[in-house]
Amino acid sequence: xxxxxxxxxQRAREALLKAYAPYSKxxxxxxxxxxxxxxxxxxxxxxxxYPLGHxxxxxxxxxxxxxxxxxxxxxxxxxxxxxxxxPCGGCRQKIREFSGPEGVAITICNNDGDVLxxxxxxxxxxxxxxxxxxxxxxx
Length: 139
Ligand code: THU
Hints:
CATH topology: Cytidine Deaminase, domain 2
Structural class: alpha+beta
Number of strands: 5
Strand order of the largest sheet: 2-1-3-4-5
Largest sheet: 5 strands, mixed
Mean pLDDT: 95
Strand content: 15-25%
CATH superfamily: Cytidine Deaminase, domain 2
Bound molecules: tetrahydrodeoxyuridine
Shape: globular
Low-confidence stretches: none
Radius of gyration: 14 Å
Distance between the termini: 25 Å
CATH architecture: 3-Layer(aba) Sandwich
Number of helices: 4
């Protein structure tokens, strides 16, 4: 059964409530759907050693990979304020890594679940370096 955008937004909002962001005070939630219809959510998890913190998208992708899925079809990211919480450069690359043949739809929302931006990984990371650029891959 296909996961609709409303459900993804709701799950991302729930994930944001679990964020551990005492340093930035910028809680983020993400929810993604894999190509088999499974849904995975994540929040950002910061650390007193600042560079060790990781993003909500990375948490959700980790859950997806652990469950045995490899292709994201749609990811929703929810952040505070009205400035669209677009994925950082590192997360764009991580999303690209697990893009299926159809690409990845990306929806960015505010904390109320209002859509601020609808885009794709191809738009956010054009001419990406990806698995096809590498001769040998473990995928
Ligand atoms: N952050 C995310 O989790 N996802 C994004 O798309 C952008 C930024 C987190 C990282 C850090 O914990 C906080 O937001 C402030 O940068």
